[in-house]
Amino acid sequence: MKTLLALFLTFALVLPAFASNDHEQERVKESGEVLKEILNIPDDIPQDLLDKAECIIVLPSVKKGAFGVGASYGRGVMICRGGEHYTSLWGPPAMYALEGLNIGFQLGGEATDFVLLVMNPKGARSLLSSKVKLGGDASAAAGPKGRTAEGATDVVMSAEILSYSRTKGLFAGISLEGSTLRSDGSANEKLYGSKLSAKDIIRGGKVKSPACAAELVALLDKKSPKNHSDPKSLQ
């Protein structure tokens, strides 16, 4: 009887861990699918901005009901180019969380996908080191659409983070100022099986990209294999 009880308790503790790992893997896969769909929209993210982004954050299926006063959030991944100066191919993703009441009012009752471009190493360093308030700790703006960023304002072109949203097929730039982004430590632990910071995953070279991220990484390596930022800005 004691043996059966011990086995039951073991399964009760272990099975949720596997379920959680599966959940994080599905979130990574979904992020790849969302980005693929968005990059296939005719009037999507300008290619010249994509080619100058050091990192990309994808947050799929964020719902209004998911938000409370700093207690709940939308979840997704952040993926960056490899190499000391972000000039190599894309590396492994880290799990990230988006928080903030302002988002809820913009979402309505529909699920919304978010894509954020991190446009310089300063913005990437901020996101890798601490919780970041958009518009405060890091300058942010609604991203322009179209084949190129020609005609975008100086504010947009100087922003550290550009944000986009897709709701019910409608794709647009969207302001997320006042919201916060942070590394989702528990999700990273579940995905990689050990305690790792976002910096360990993205810059530390401590892990390889998991199988669930294969589509996401391959997509970005195909769509934007080279960083076209001014080399001086990457120092």
Topology:
Blueprint: H1 2-39, H2 47-50, E1 55-62, E2 74-80, E3 94-99, H3 101-107, E4 112-118, H4 121-129, E5 132-133, E6 140-142, H5 154-158, E7 161-167, E8 170-173, E9 180-183, H6 185-192, H7 198-202, H8 214-223
Parallel strand pairs: 6-7
Antiparallel strand pairs: 1-2, 1-4, 2-3, 3-9, 4-7, 5-9, 7-8
Helix pairs in contact: 1-6, 1-8
Short précis:
With 235 residues, this protein is an alpha+beta fold.
Descriptive key words:
single chain; 235 residues; alpha+beta; 9-stranded mixed β-sheet; globular
Explain this structure.
- The protein has 235 residues and is of the alpha+beta class.
- The chain has one domain (2-227).
- It is built from eight helices and nine strands.
- Strands 1, 2, 3, 4, 5, 6, 7, 8 and 9 form a nine-stranded mixed beta sheet that branches.
- Helix 1 (2-39) packs across helix 6.
- The longest helix is centred in the N-terminal third of the chain and has 38 residues, at 2-39.
- The protein is globular and about 45 Å long.
- The termini are far apart.
